[in-house]
Model the fold of this input.
Amino acid sequence: MVLALGAMIASCGDKKEKKDGFEVSRTKTEDTKAQAKEEVPVDMDNKGVGPITSLEFPDEINDEMVARGKAKFEAICVACHMVDQRMIGPALKGVYDRRSPEWVMNMILNPDGMLKEDPIAKALLKEYNNAIMLNQNLTEDEARDVAEYLRTL
Done:
C-alpha cells in the first residue's frame, strides 16, 4: 500500500506525457507570452521610410489643422486606434514621446514601406499580432492635419 501511494505521488511530479501526438507538460512555467513579447524601442532619431525627411512642429498648435485632423482621425483611424487605450493598433496619446514627427507622418503616408523596412514598424507589427496598418491614401496635407491633432492628445 505504501509503495503504491509513493508511486502515485511520484507520477504527479515533473512529468511529461504524450497524448494523441501532443506532449503535455505538468510543470508550471513562466508566462511564455510575456517572455516572447519584445519591447518596441523608443527611437526619436528614426525618421522612418517615406517622403517626409524633415518636419519641425511650430511652438503653437494650429487649431484649424487640429479640427481637420480630428475629423479625419475620427473618420478613418478610430477603426484601429484609440487615444489612450491599446486596440488593434497602439494608443496614440503621447506618440511624440515615442516617435519622431517624421516617423509618424511616414507611417501615415507609407505604411507598406514602413512595415517592410522600418525596424520600429516591424516590431509594432509583431507586437500587434501582425495586424497591418492599411494605407488610407491620405495627401501630405491631410496627414499633416492628423499629425497636428495627435499633438493635442
Summary: The two ends are 70 Å apart (CA to CA). Helices lie at 2-11, 32-36, 63-76, 101-109, 111-117, 119-127, 140-151.
